[in-house]
Amino acid sequence: MRRLAKLPDWLIYIVVLAALVLAADTRRLNADAPAPPPPLPGEEATPLSPLSPFNAARIVKIPAIGGRFATAFSIGEAGFWLTAQSAIKDCGRIAIIVAAGRGAEAKAVTAPGGQLALLSTDGGEPPLPLAPGARSGEDSFIAGFPQGSPGEAAVRLLGESYLGDHRRGDLAQPDLAWVEIGRTDGLIGRLDGMEGAPVFDGMGRVQGVLIEQSPRRGRLYAAPVSTVRQAMAMAKVAPVTQPDGEPITTDNYGRAADALRRDLRVVQLWCGD
Q1: What Å distances lie between residue 269 and 81, 103, 117, 222, CA to CA?
Q2: Looking at domain 9-33+55-273, which of 3.20.20.70, 2.40.30.10, 2.60.40.420, 2.40.10.120 is its CATH number?
């Protein structure tokens, strides 16, 4: 009987090492987060706390049917918020949802670049800190309200991308392209409603603002943090850069996103006729 040739030890080591690397990479590319906790029962009827920073006289009822939803986040405790320009297109009324069925009336202010919109309310929450930038290959996270409900995604930066038609030919400042590597467990389909959500790094600092998605290519596009700084300069708001939370990873980004939404630093935006 003919014997098979024995494989050299070094070849076996290489095969085993390659298998381990592939397994680790596959695990990272499926960095799903657990579903967020359900809202408390009776929350809609609960009055706002006397300590709420929002002016009670400017709180409006959000209709159960009608309008559309997106995401925004705080950039100034005096009541300044940032979202995607597309999120407030053709809106007759805008509100930052502060409790189930209720929102703080918001006014829109034109922001630079044509991609972001600056909003103001009577009262606000502490701003999110800003990152100095983003690095290709870096893992980051997005917190918001996909499909109208709390949710999040883990993403990895691919690099710069020029969305020429979105910028109407202005290619002076590229956007950032990310690939999704994880999301809220059970969340299927497009991430509609995440427009305007912050993309933040492992220290909880904003690296960009989600403006567009390409599900077929598995890409998400964000305006860079430099555009966020321009919007804050318009509002005469000094940026915060010091992180104020624990490090965020693919293991705990769901909990970190829950905390940002609970503290109303990342909020759901309502656009009505």
Answers
A1: 10, 9, 12, 18
A2: 2.40.10.120
Chain centre distance of CA 233: 21
Residue type, 99: A
SS3 state at 17: helix
Q: What is the pLDDT along the chain (273 residues), one digit of tens a residue?
A: 445 455 565 455 555 445 444 443 443 456 787 776 655 444 444 456 566 788 887 889 998 888 999 999 999 999 999 999 999 999 999 999 998 899 999 999 877 668 899 999 999 999 999 999 999 999 999 999 999 999 999 999 999 887 644 444 444 568 999 999 999 999 999 999 999 999 999 999 999 999 999 888 889 999 999 999 998 998 888 999 999 888 999 999 999 999 999 999 999 999 998
| Domain residue ranges of the chain, discontinuous segments joined by + | 9-33+55-273
Separation between Cα atoms, residue 47 and residue 97, nearest integer Å: 14
In terms of pTM, does the model score above 0.85? Answer: no
